[in-house]
């Protein structure tokens, strides 16, 4: 058997009721939801299990909710002694990956992403920045488009390099609109505006990064026990100093997801398990390389089924 990577989803995958069947099935798993409530001084678990969806989707809520749910699911894998060779997460999911790798405690992770969400919301007034998904255009062509628009005084940049032919751009509202038009002229098949509260992973997030430094400085960050493939470099990070630097840069830098998956494959990973709600990441992995195996684990049933099948192989 080849190597295993655990992947953790980012914002956008949240859904009311996520993790509920898991919390009901195991008191250790339930304890993560209780710990999150205690650390944040409000009932995040009630919001996760009962909604409403609009409130759960707010950046400040979605980020700790997703981290909590994914770490709760991970507990079942820990109990079954199934360990990954590598971990990675998309944007917010990188924090979940770092908790999974032992780089910081679950409680610190939940608090950090709550603050991260607050700073991201505050960094750019609502309506000033936005994001759009560009389909069917190569990264070099799109880079030329965003460079040209930025030179005209409307900042826009590549934000998420998700898989071949799917890149998200981010920046000022006018920058994204102008780049969307030029991208179509350059041959993009489709450009879809995204419903987001800000221009994430763009230079406009620099003020959030400055504030967020203080949160990270107060946290106890350890060397990772499992190599984490970093969003900003698509390379392994394990040292505490490297982790801190890359988390700050991650706020305003592109998420190199396609490169990260390719890196893990080059390191011998042939099984990717997405731990958390939705199937966004396994979908992207399949678009990057059809030959690898993917599993999505979001509830008690899928969790047990995947664990059983892996146990059989390990034996």
From TrEMBL:
GO terms for molecular function: [acyl-carrier-protein] S-malonyltransferase activity. It catalyses: holo-[ACP] + malonyl-CoA = malonyl-[ACP] + CoA. Its EC number is 2.3.1.39. The keyword Acyltransferase applies. Residues 7-314 form the Malonyl-CoA:ACP transacylase (MAT) domain. Keywords: Acyltransferase, Transferase. It comes from the Bacteria. InterPro entries: Ac_transferase_dom_sf (IPR001227), Acyl_transferase_dom (IPR014043), Acyl_Trfase/lysoPLipase (IPR016035), Mal-CoA-ACP_Trans/PKS_FabD (IPR050858), Malonyl_CoA-ACP_transAc (IPR024925), Malonyl_CoA-ACP_transAc_FabD (IPR004410), Malonyl_transacylase_ACP-bd (IPR016036). It is an enzyme of class 2 (transferase). The keyword Transferase applies. NCBIfam families: fabD (TIGR00128). Belongs to the fabD family. This is Malonyl CoA-acyl carrier protein transacylase. It comes from Cytobacillus citreus.
